[in-house]
Amino acid sequence: MGDMFRSEQMALCQMFIQPEAAYTSVSELGETGCVQFRDLNCTVNVFQRKFVTEVRRCDELERKIRYIETEIKKDGIALPDIQDDIPRAPNPREIIDLEAHLEKTETEMIELAQNEVNMKSNYLELTELRKVLENTQGFFSDQEVLNLDSSNRGGGDEAVTQHRGRLGFVAGVINRERVFGFERMLWRISRGNVFLKRSDLDDPLNDPATGHPIYKTVFVAFFQGEQLKNRIKKVCTGFHASLYPCPSSHNEREEMVKNVRTRLEDLKLVLSQTEDHRSRVLATVSKNLPSWSIMVKKMKAIYHTLNLFNMDVTKKCLIGECWVPTKDLHVVQKALSDGSAAVGSTIPSFLNVIDTNEQPPTFNRTNKFTRGFQNLIDAYGIASYRECNPALYTCITFPFLFAVMFGDLGHGLILLLFGAWMVLSENKLSRIKNGGEIWNIFFGGRYIILLMGLFSCYTGIIYNDIFSKSMNLFGSNWVNNYNTSTVLTNPHLQMSPNTSAKGVYPLGLDPIWQLADNKIIFLNSFKMKLSIIIGVLHMIFGVSMSVFNFVHFKRYSSILLEFVPQILFLMLLFGYMCFMMFFKWFKYNGFTSNQPETPGCAPSVLIMFINMMLFKNTAPLNGCKEFMFESQPDVQKLFVVVGLICVPWMLLGKPLYIKMTRSKNVSHVKHNGELTGNMELAEGETPLPTGSTGTESAGGAHGHDDEPMSEIYIHQAIHTIEYVLSTISHTASYLRLWALSLAHAQLSEVLWNMVLSMGLKMPPYTGAIGLFIIFGAWCLFTLAILVMMEGLSAFLHTLRLHWVEFMSKFYEGLGYAFQPFSFKAIIDGEEEE
């Protein structure tokens, strides 16, 4: 947890690697995942870099792997899961064998696919011919056989043929959706002199290229004359109809059908053998394909990274620049040594640390528990380098503020069980790759959901609320002192704490409030004051966090000129209001005999605060006092005056200080790469802190050396106005804790009274069935409305309270994320896409 208070200290380093050890060294760095490289070839076109040929080679290998993977998925073969045994980056010599194997497999698959398409095309043609021969049996009769001749083989000239009335015919198959246009076109070109008979095929045929079903129709067109025959064939060609020879003799057709069926059986056997061979090849390849894919991805990432390096003038050394966490410098040094040893390089690679004034990237080391909370902060803005990280405190304050709005033991238990299931089964659930974006969000925030459910159970116990009902765990501390007749004859009775209360309920609210008519009034007052108290404490904590930033960045003047007036303004006004709430709870009670201290004389804290700000007075009731203690008017005036003095203090203090000290500060401007303390690191050594961590211009601080004084005055005026107004608006904004808590409780009560209570009031026998149905509807509405919708609403409001009300007091969020070269991040990122 200590690492989360500030981002990791970073060092800008130079790497000097021998070309023969470059591949293995970068591979080792990719496995560690703790180095962010910088591009030293920004001016060089991506197609002119040193390793662009190797990158293209990897692209070609990826294309082949994608093609083979598509074929494997087409056949429904499952790929093995290798998350527990991820291979390392391949040796450049090993990739030659892999390339040859993929080339051979791809060629074989292409040949098999082409042969299969050709055979399926032949099979389709033979199937269509068989359908034509079988379906045209009913188109011909014994009398027609004497007059039909598809080839006009009968002797004699055309005049004799026409005189005898001999008819020609054309048979074929056409797509069913084109039949009506085909018929119309034949009628137009022949002027009604073509007789067309057709029969739809019941079973669809499969397209040889795509495998999609095709519905077709068998047709026979009868005509007279050779010229009309040529026209019909042209129309058939235009409509993509397949024509097949069809003998006019019944015996010839029967013989032809037998031959076609024999050929179909032979072709089906060949297709079956081809499918078996294809399946065997794909099954063999599928065992190694995931490993090959990861190996090629790692190899491509290595060459992409090597393209960021610069070659020295002697062409004997690769130079790279990178950001490294100082805690991981020994890991990087060891990775470079292992990379050099892997290829037997005699010249070791070494690392130089460079002093620079450039702002380093922000790296917060997280684990599976804190990663979700860190993502919430990073969604607002990446922290400036080395400034305080709100995620450390968000781990507790976020689920707590959520629970204040979602305080119900039953609903909190549902969230707790859901989060616990995801946490306990995280190893199995993490293997789900295609769960969708919503599932990934839920699973990534599983520990947030777990804590939100746990804290909601706690606040549900404090509110004594479980599905809008109360639990009588310790027995009510209120006693009914009225007799039976008084209770039966009076619809409303008031119970005084003096006579009816035996003490304080041990934990949370007394269950008797569930029956009280003034339950809403009491809970409103309680939750409203609780929201203001929590909000003011949260904002005071946020303002106090700015001190740690000022001390770390050595901006000690800002403690006096910014923090002190800010905390005084907040404490003397709104902190005083919270103090008066507690003072009112302690001073006024029903057991005292002094009338000014009885509950009826208790003044309104809100009215008192308004009068304090406006220097007004409100006349008290008879026998009561306007103020809670004697010196309260003088104290309030002092607090308001000091609070008003804080405004010009914040407005003018910092600009005047900068103006007075500007002439004394003569700073030397460093340029990136200026080696003021450049040193070579031996293995195991840890460098001194680098960068400008302690300067005014460091991350998390604003430099004003070159800024005009007019800009500084305007900038400070904006900040002062924003803080003064936001202190008021942010305090009111925390009332959302009360509003959403009230809305959640009322929705839960309405759902119970309007839905579930109906089933509980039904007659015994029919009520059993009705209660079963109504209980299902109540569960559905509870999950959909109260848990999911209300939970999402409370989550978003909690997120706003942290982003705006809390983090704006000390958090700048002007940094950029540390994005290390990591094989794991590359592979996980591609799987999510």
UniProtKB/TrEMBL annotation:
It comes from Drosophila hydei (Fruit fly). The gene is LOC111592942. One of its GO terms (molecular function) is ATPase binding. Keywords: Coiled coil, Hydrogen ion transport, Ion transport, Membrane, Transmembrane, Transmembrane helix, Transport. Its main location: membrane. GO terms for biological process: vacuolar acidification. One of its GO terms (cellular component) is plasma membrane. Essential component of the vacuolar proton pump (V-ATPase), a multimeric enzyme that catalyzes the translocation of protons across the membranes. Required for assembly and activity of the V-ATPase. Residues 681-703 are annotated as: Disordered. This is V-type proton ATPase subunit a. Belongs to the V-ATPase 116 kDa subunit family. It is a multi-pass membrane protein. It is found in: Membrane. It holds the Pfam family V_ATPase_I. The chain crosses the membrane at residues 400-424, 444-463, 530-551, 563-586, 635-652, 768-789. Residues 95-122 form a coiled coil.
